[in-house]
């Protein structure tokens, strides 16, 4: 028997809090919305991940994947015509709604945009792939939120949707109920991130192996990846300092210490660092420490205070403050999302 309402936000499928409402979560129904101008590559990524042909290979129940649209067929960006098996009414039971890119955003019907908004209002998470972020933004749901899209389109996106905080330097952004990815390959990164969030690292790794892709790139199992370590020639006098800094993130480090190691004045060091990495020493150190803390939370059983100490945040209170400010979650919630799930099979049994 269905309850009248249900609200579900980001979290493992088996742990979503529902009252048998209108959003199907065990295992989740994923609805990929299609429209004219659809990009075939990202659409195929969604189909391959969420509609995986033989989930028995993964040893887990799987999503129910539906392709939905306002019309019985759409024209793909390469000229092919795609039949659409389901109408937009199927978004009513979706836990996740996926929005692939299209080169005809302005042609998407108000009926389609309204259906996406209603799905979100009922508790579905909305996922845009690459420039599908333009579709998501057209619904109005991204106002005041953080997002990303293909780096080449970030300036145009910001000009069109100035109330959205666009981050061009990440592979994807997980903002809870709204998730966005960068370019085509990052669409797969985000889809695997969703599998990992819903089913756990082991299942996501099995799927990645079946697809012959890495389960995560350039930052372990992090939610997003920012400003990776630049590759410097060993002859660069700055290289050894950066390498030492990377290896000693848990130490209490001052800019004076780094400047001394680089044999530079404090001002010259700060200027050279920004020119090399694109950020200030403090910003770079904070981001690297957050990455380290997340890896430790994901891969060890160390206490929150110990993780904070080992990653240079000194104590759990400081770590919690930075997690909330930059990741919009707590260290414990982050760890639980990746390592504390109950078995999906048990949840469905």
Describe, in plain words, how this protein is organized in 3D.
There is one protein chain. The protein has 14 helices and 10 strands. The longest helix is centred in the C-terminal third of the chain and has 19 residues, at 281-299. With 349 residues, it is of the alpha/beta class. The strands form 3 sheets. A 6-stranded mixed beta sheet has the order 2-1-5-6-10-9, with helices on both faces. It has a two-stranded antiparallel ribbon with strand order 3-4. A two-stranded parallel ribbon has the order 7-8. Helix 1 (40-50) links the parallel strand 1 and strand 2. Residues 1-26, 218-230 and 340-349 have low confidence and may be disordered.
